Amino acid sequence: MFKTFDHYLKILLFTIVICFEIGCSPKLSNSEKYTVNSIESGSDILNNIYQKQTLRVGTTGDFKPFSYIVDSTGNYTGIDIKMGKDLAKSLGVKVEFIETSWPTLMSDLMENKFDIGMCGVTITPKRKKISFFSIPVYSSGKAAITRDENALKYNSIEKINNKEVRVIFNPGGTNEAFARANFPKATLILNEDNLSIFQKLVDNEADVMVTDAIETLIQQQIHKELAAVNPNAPFNSFDFGYLLPKDTVFKTVVDNWLLEKKKDSLIIKLLYKEIDKHQ
Q: How far apart are CA 185 and CA 78, in angstroms?
């Protein structure tokens, strides 16, 4: 009843496609249409990338299907990892993935530990105060994931926001912010990382997590005991983007590259591949 994965996925992908084709692809003015080669000396970030012949991509490695680690190799994979490699290729440089975390993501950017953050980063007003973002990559919203038998029990914020409900979340990102803002009456469990949360839900160490809708769909495929709760009707909506330092020229280069990838439907193709991995 709850695991109508294909139905949810079609709706979710339709929303993403609409975002790609209409809502998330603003046209750049003629003054903004720079090419990489013509402006590589007009940006401190680009100058550094070309001097070192390396694009440094900050990534958390804990957010399927965007950025995660393959256990057998220890290497990063996911949609944004492949996009990072593509961006580096378009710049004609190597790519280096720099480990970051949700609690340190913004400070790592400010300390110049990486050139671009690519790991399913939500565009928020707080983050935009101190950074730039690319044009939106895709749109989504927060949805609950819980054990299959509890899907009806936790299908609204009101039902989750009760003291007997154990809400688990990872630190430092929008999952923590959403939980603290919306579930003040619930028993809140701060978990040290994101990926171990889903097994803890299976093991009944917590009742529910609220995270990105696409992640709930992926994780219910991995953990058959879990169910994504109404991922086609999330609690809110937001955009993901690539996190950038405040460098207008570098942002323009990234935006132009991303517009081309949207025309090629690259991210949709990568999303389908990631979903196929976990079915």
A: 35
